[in-house]
Amino acid sequence: MPYISTRDGRKPPERLAFEDVLLAGLAGDGGLYVPDAWPRLEAATLRALRGESYAAVAAAVTAPFIEGVLAPAEWRALLDEVYGGFVHAAVAPLKELGPSLWLMELFHGPTLAFKDYALQLLGPLFDRVLTRRRERVTVIGATSGDTGSAAIAALRDRASADIFILYPHGRISDVQRRQMTTVPAANVHAVAVEGTFDDCQDLVKAMFADAGFRAALNLSAVNSINWARIMAQVVYYVAAAVALGAPDRPVAFAVPTGNFGNIYAAHVARRMGLPIAQLVIGTNRNDILARFIRDGKMTIGAVEPSLSPSMDIQVSSNFERLYFELAGRDGAAVAQAFRDFRQSGTLPTDAALWQEAKTLFAAHRVDDAAISATIAQTFRDTGELLDPHSAVAVAAARAVKRDPAVPMVALACAHPAKFPEAVERAAGVRPALPPRLADLMTQPERIAVLPNDLASVERFIRERARTVQKERTPLPCG
Ligand SMILES: *Cc1c(COP(=O)(O)O)cnc(C)c1O
User: Most buried pick, 124, 268, 306, 394, via CB within 10 A?
Assistant: First the structure.
């Protein structure tokens, strides 16, 4: 499957192979990579997946995207190994919360958030591709809390990569911070930036845009802008839908949304043929996406801290992938629109584009009071402790569920023990960390605090990265 950049205005656009897209993350023109076409998941394929393991579903979903990277048997062995390492046998188990309302638990990986489902796969994939190419990369990423620790868990101690994660100083939970700052690996660097998540994300984009820096350090990104992460996230939507009766019965999903990566993966599943009746974007008080769906204007507001910090985002990077599609895959128009967005704070949209977006997505804003109320009520009614992000999903699912006959799956994107204060305040019960993380709160931390300033961050990285100064040659695409 060849990939193109959302901002490539050439006709035809440059087509890249999966490997290059995997390693680059963000395109050189500032765009995001998307597949040239959507492969189909036929009804017969979906039916054949009933009762199969998560790794088997992953193999079926990812096969057309990774074509040619690893031999099918090797790829399948890797999937078995990766998802066999998750602590729950079902990997992404479903729990019934109420009539036609399900919770999909996506916190059974090493760092207790859904980010593990993709990053645990990306780690060994990076390593294999880089080792084969005799290359090393410097992975940089911005995190609103959970991506950082998941990326670090995936890449720690790997000879092929150094990893630098920027997070907003003082704006993530203690558990989230400690999952990054207590990792003793020499190739791991957690950087606290005096700013918001959007500032961190801007710094990462600016480093990618700095061609000299990018080449010297052989930069790579594992943020949710990396196509391979989206691909890996498509898997659990398919797994859940098949478990609930797809392709013979449609399903709906409610997704707590920040950078739009997770829900975009659901949209990809739908494009591939999964019968999804409704996709619900749940936002917290940082509601740019909900406002867009409501009145068609995407205007950046100030980022406000909330009980669900991994969603404290105003610029949802992956939205560009949807925009590209809604704008008729016109790379030049997308490049212009996102330049305007950056300059004016408002994304140029028109009535047709808004209409189409509204057809594809429903949205609901869940403020802190509603998050707490949902945690409390769900605990009372079902005995389940929701983390604040999962509470956004459940509240949004209840608020906008359209068809009572269609099972609605709310995504539990983090373990409640990642956000113990918020959960305890709402439910009156303090969630315990799983045994595998029991000593997290007592291990020593390594913290670097840097100003929100590109030169300072680049200097810090240059001084610590082990990377060679050699440039990658893109592979020809076949
Ligand atoms: C990352 C994250 C989100 C937001 O997901 P996006 O893909 O950025 O929309 C929501 N909840 C939790 C717990 C997360 O870690």
Answer: 394
Instruction: For ligand 1, pick from 104, 106, 146, 387 the residue to mutate: most ligand atoms within 8 Å of CB.
Output: 146
| Cα of 474 from ligand 1 centre, angstroms | 31
Give me ligand 1 centre to Cα 262, in Å. Answer: 7
Phi then psi for residue 98, to 5 deg, are 180, -175
Q: Which amino acid is at 113?
A: A
* Number of Cβ atoms within 10 Å of the Cβ of 53: 17
- The string of DSSP letters for 123-173 reads HHHHHHHHHHHT--EEEEEE-SSHHHHHHHHHHTT-TTEEEEEEEETT-S-
Q: Could you tell me which residues come within 8 angstroms of residue 452 by beta carbon, excluding any fewer than 6 positions away?
A: 193, 194, 195, 199, 203
Closest CA to 60 of 48, 68, 69, 71: 48
- Count CB neighbours of 228 within 10 A: 25
State pLDDT tens for residues 221-237.
877 789 999 999 999 99
Of 310, 416, 316, the residue nearest 372 (C-alpha): 416
C-alpha span between 171 and 177 (Å, rounded)? 9
Q: Which residues line ligand 1 (CB under 6 A)?
A: 113, 115, 146, 224, 256-262, 310-311, 389, 413-414
The string of pLDDT tens digits covering residues 141-164 is 998 778 899 999 999 999 999 999
pTM listed for this prediction: 0.93
